[in-house]
Amino acid sequence: MKKILFYSLVIVSQLFAQSKFEINHDIIQSGNYFNSEINYFPSGDDFTVYYSYKIPYSQLYFEKIGDVFKAGFSVNIEISDSVSNIIKRAYDNRNISVNDFDQTVSSTTFLQGLISIKLKEGKYRLISIITDKFSKRESTLPPNNFVLSKKEKILFPIVLNQHTTFCDSIESYILSNNSSTIPFNKPYNYLAIPVTDSSVKSLTIKAKQNNTYVISNEVNNQALILSSSFILCDDNILIRKENLGIKYFLFKDFSSKLNEGLLTLEVVPNNDLNQKKDFNLQVIWIGKPVSLKDPEEAIKYLKIIEPETKVSKLLSGSDYEKSLNSYWKPLDPTPTTNYNELMNEFYKRVDYANREYKFIDGNGGAYSDRGKTYIKYGAPNKIERNASNDDKVIETWFYNNPKRTFVFVDNEGTGKYLLVADK
């Protein structure tokens, strides 16, 4: 039995959709987190409360058993009432088996789970305890308070993926499941606003960031009837289309108009301002490249692809973020959205080069010869490594399109590979 010792589970964020919450922005942005949210719907005299969670495989502890890598994970929740009596307990256990080691370190493959419970109207506190099966590590997340009230006719907005899927031949929408935040880097996601009042025929929304309306009076008078139940199907949390559900007003491509940061969403039913309801949300670039977090440093990395004079001009002003965006905006392959895919790809390559191509002394990285080549051309199609007659390591990178070959030599055995040939 071989243990894969990369367990670094960061349990930091349990954020609820339909209650007041605080968001650890940096943790969610990193993409390495245990993510959870609560959504609830009236169900007869009660409420059905859905606790959904999501964690990347890279944050689980895998053991190699035979030819298979296995991990296990459990989530236990406790619900207390307004006088601190525990009134409900529920749990979810999940086991995973994968054949490929690369899957065990993936930050884009997720384990998702769902727990549902029935509760009456009232004030509640939820505590969740998460346990890794093989490492036996256990963490208790901070308590969260929420209120269930039949007076609420407009429920907290739900972020959905833009593409639907099918489960048991029923078309369904996929819950984004990112702690009720709006992913900036998914500009075509939908915002779904559930409404329990059948008399509501239209919703008008306005969205404000930094005291400026980025969305003004967008009207939707075409509600969809979707289920008031969540289901887990093929490792996705789904809301199914069905005739006996409740109204959802879907605002498509909602994220495309937004910037990173806090967002106040104003929702007005039937054009009646007396019933206006405000929601506070966060727009977060999930998995944002580390090299983009400091705009001044991000501009300096452009020296890898631009002449010094151009970079110096970008650095001459005091608003580095504005200068950085002014450089990338004309290169944006999707100019109708605020998210720039090309900018993201460049700085993802910078991050990779900084991780993989550092010298023993800590220098190099993106500014090394291999780093600069990787940033300009991406990952090579093939790499060959061998030794010369004087025991120097030679690394050759082959690219198919365009057809290029780069030869690097480590003269000192310190990882400082120098480019000696470009064919």
Characterization of this structure:
The chain is mainly beta. It folds into three domains: 1-149, Immunoglobulin-like (Sandwich), CATH 2.60.40; 153-287; 290-422, no CATH class. Helix content is 14%, strand content 43%. It has seven helices and 26 strands. The protein has helices at 25-30, 101-104, 295-300, 308-315, 320-328, 341-356, 369-377, and strands spanning 2-3, 35-43, 46-56, 63-65, 68-80, 86-98, 110-119, 122-132, 138-140, 144-148, 158-160, 165-167, 170-174, 182-183, 190-195, 203-209, 212-220, 224-233, 236-241, 246-251, 261-269, 277-284, 382-387, 393-399, 404-410, 417-422. Strands 1, 4, 5, 6, 8, 9 and 10 form a seven-stranded antiparallel β-sheet that branches. It has a seven-stranded antiparallel β-sheet with strand order 11-15-20-18-19-13-12, with no helix packed on it. Helix 6 (341-356) runs antiparallel to helix 7. It starts with a strand and ends with a strand. Residues 1-23 and 27-31 have low confidence and may be disordered.
**CATH-defined topology of the largest domain:** Immunoglobulin-like
Q: How many distinct beta strands?
A: 26
CATH architecture of the largest domain: Sandwich
Structural class by helix and strand composition = mainly beta
Proportion of residues in helical segments? 10-25%
What is the mean predicted local confidence, pLDDT?
88
Overall tally of domains:
3
| Biggest beta-sheet profile | 7 strands, antiparallel
Q: Work out the strand percent.
A: 35-45%
Distance between the termini: 46 Å
* Low-pLDDT segments, ≥5 res: 1-23, 27-31
Q: Under the CATH scheme, which class of the largest domain?
A: Mainly Beta
Mass-distribution shape:
globular
C-alpha Rg (nearest Å): 25 Å
Distinct helical segment count: 7
